Amino acid sequence: MVFSLLTKIFGSNNDRQIKKIMPLVEQINALEDGMKALTDEEMAAKTLEFRARLSKGKNPESSESLDDLLPEAFAIVREAAVRTLGMRHYDVQLIGGIALHRGMISEMKTGEGKTLMSTLPAYLNALSGRGVHVVTVNDYLAKRDAEWMDAIYSFLGLRVGVIIHNLNDAQRREAYSADITYGTNNEFGFDYLRDNMKFDRESLAQGELNFAIVDEVDSILIDEARTPLIISGPAEKSTHMYHQVNTIIPSFVAETDYSIDEEAKSVTLTEEGVAKGEKLLGVENLYDPKNIETLHHLNQALKAHTLFKRDVDYIVKNDEVVIVDEFTGRLMEGRRYSEGLHQALEAKENVKIANENQTLASITFQNYFRMYEKLSGMTGTAETEAAEFKKIYNLDVLVIPTHKPMIRKDMPDVIYKTKKEKYEAAIKEIIRLHKKGQPVLVGTISIDVSEDLSRQLEKRNIKHTVLNAKHHKAEAEIVAAAGQKGAVTISTNMAGRGTDIVLGEGVKELGGLHILGTSRHESRRIDNQLRGRSGRQGDEGSSRFYLSLEDDLLRIFGGERISSIMDRLGIDEGEPIEHNLISRAIENAQSKVEGHNFEIRKQLIEYDDVMNQQREVIYRQRRQALTEENLKDEFLQMIEERCWDILEIFEDEKLPVPDWDIEGLCDTFNRQFNCTLQPSDFDREDIDGEKAGRIMVDKALEKYVEKETLIGDAEFRQLEKYVMLQTVDSLWKDHLLNMDHLKEGIGLRSYAQQNPLVIYKKEGFEMFQGLIDRIREQTLNILFRIQIVNPDDLNQIRKPKNEKLTLSHSDSSAPREPVKRTEAKTGRNDPCPCGSGKKYKKCCGA
């Protein structure tokens, strides 16, 4: 109450932020008449003028910053929009554009013109010549927005590129070289990974990550943050086990052989289930290490049959299992669940089982977008997740006022006891509004519900259209027509995000577009997105949600409490209830789920931060090998380090050098460097450890120079580069698998009173140190043995293997049951994994 009173007196923090921005808006408005007086040619010349002012000489004091140019740049874009598109940026769009330029999230209601708003900061930041990426949720919107806004950019002398599916490398390079590049979050992320798998710098596409404007930022950075982007290649595994395990699943009984936790979306075998699995699969102990793959197949098959529903989580199309995005309802063509889950679904649906894949590269959206020097976003619904945006991305949310007052009527939810009663009531309301002529957009949470409602309306001869993942091709046309008189549109959560629903003639007088939600989503944002389709730009509109106690959200997270309230009130069958207690209980249920999902995302990023540090080291090393002409200094350093590593294995500070295992040392050295080091080389009276090491280094360098002379300097430099790249890629792939296995079993460490994340960091560090050692060892091993008989052989080495790559999202991020993994060795001169800062040999390895 006190807080509410203070807000009324002093205004909210959001109000104060907007008040600070208003003087800039006034400056932009004051320049409008001057911009109108310019000719088209004079306006286009302004871009060259701004760029010259940004880099005026080499004296930083004489050049201007982007902030200095903002008022003029925004004013010139506004005038260009008027001349090319007949659209003028409102003051609220100027406020939103300033927030984007400052690296914030602009929350702007649907229909307020986010696409046009983004041209302001995109143009300003493109003046630096370092590129601007505008990120959208699908190819259609990326292409539409790029073509639409290109009129403004080309008028001002800037070039626009588009990154969509199925472009080749040359087309991608061309698009990224543009001043402003539009594309989807998936394509930007996958291009980053693909660039870090290339074998020559000419084929690199993406360039630097300077400034990103993320449209529908909540969908991309929150909803999709739980599923990492993965590039994988085929693994040599048989698909027979998927068929075998699938045949036994129908005999498993719920609550007897397995238990389902719907809140956590997990399924667990009981002791009875384990015993049944062992009997049916003919194994003695499923938890024996040799049967761990069988156990994994069984768990994935169980998950496929119990947690994943056809026409909700996936559809079967052209004899393929295609994933349905749970947040947008769109088909995720080409995406596959990882770790055998997709194969388990293929076995369940009796379609061809594709070979399993092995991860070659992966990254989360969280870590990809945090690599941009400046990040901003825009959406109609971000305020409910403001804390998460700040904590994970350091992004503040600014709620932008609407150009015209919002007059949409959001009516209280109506709740029924059963789903049957709820849908009957919803259909009656649709028929009533249809007869009246008021357009209705019906929101559903899955494909099967949308199709069931469609069948019910067909029986009653109600003309309508359906928008879901099965009928997505005409999405823009369906959504655009949804505001016409008498229109009935049934939609999943995709609901045409990014496409305005314009009201037809006479509709405003009927009450505008009515939104009828048939279920509450787990997230309040998704509900707000659905509501936001109505009431754009001060239009008339209304919304109401129809719920039942059998809905998953209420049943899992608050059904008993709500049910007891309804019983006390004596609600009859078919009779709805509207009550503040119920509304609060629903909000509490949604808050609980949002909190649970935030914890999952937070855990994902905590674990992926470990991988991200390792990824940055490997990709930096790889990019150096790719872009530098000469790696000789790096190889000389590697040779010296490897010699001292070998010496360290055999040295004994308590004994003189002749008493060491010199034969073993020579044997190890010769295997590494393909040399002929002899015990007699150490027959010197003054020999000590330092001199022994120098003998080894000199011998290895002598062999290196011999190899270099034999092959030729230029060819040898190329050879070093490609041997390094091939070795790094091969060992990094294996390391990713080992890190996945480590994460799968790490959760069980909590039973030993250990923090799984701390253990994951410690053991992951040890494994990474081992990886670095193996890269050095294997790279030198290949280089010192390779024979080039024909110059054409070098070109063959340069070509990467033509693997069929799969782009996908992982299905899960949480640690799972343990499986075997490869242990890595910490070198004695490496930093100690305990974090003391000392060398391993003088700390835990002493």
From TrEMBL:
Keywords: ATP-binding, Cell inner membrane, Cell membrane, Cytoplasm, Membrane, Metal-binding, Nucleotide-binding, Protein transport, Translocase, Translocation, Transport, Zinc. One of its GO terms (cellular component) is cytosol. Residues 3-578 form the SecA family profile domain. Pfam families: P-loop_SecA, SEC-C, SecA_DEAD, SecA_PP_bind, SecA_SW. It comes from the Bacteria. It is found in: Cell membrane; Cytoplasm. One of its GO terms (molecular function) is ATP binding. Residues 817-828 have a biased composition (Basic and acidic residues). Its main location: membrane. Residues 410-594 form the Helicase C-terminal domain. It catalyses: ATP + H2O + cellular proteinSide 1 = ADP + phosphate + cellular proteinSide 2. It comes from Desulfamplus magnetovallimortis. Part of the Sec protein translocase complex. Interacts with the SecYEG preprotein conducting channel. Has a central role in coupling the hydrolysis of ATP to the transfer of proteins into and across the cell membrane, serving as an ATP-driven molecular motor driving the stepwise translocation of polypeptide chains across the membrane. GO terms for biological process: intracellular protein transmembrane transport; protein import; protein targeting; protein transport by the Sec complex. ATP binds at Q93, G111, E112, G113, K114, T115, D500. Residues 801-846 are annotated as: Disordered. InterPro entries: Helicase_ATP-bd, Helicase_C-like, P-loop_NTPase, SEC_C_motif, SecA, SecA_CS, SecA_DEAD, SecA_motor_DEAD. It is a peripheral membrane protein. It is an enzyme of class 7 (translocase). Belongs to the SecA family. Monomer and homodimer. Part of the essential Sec protein translocation apparatus which comprises SecA, SecYEG and auxiliary proteins SecDF. Other proteins may also be involved. Its cofactor is Zn(2+). Residues 95-253 form the Helicase ATP-binding domain. This is Protein translocase subunit SecA.
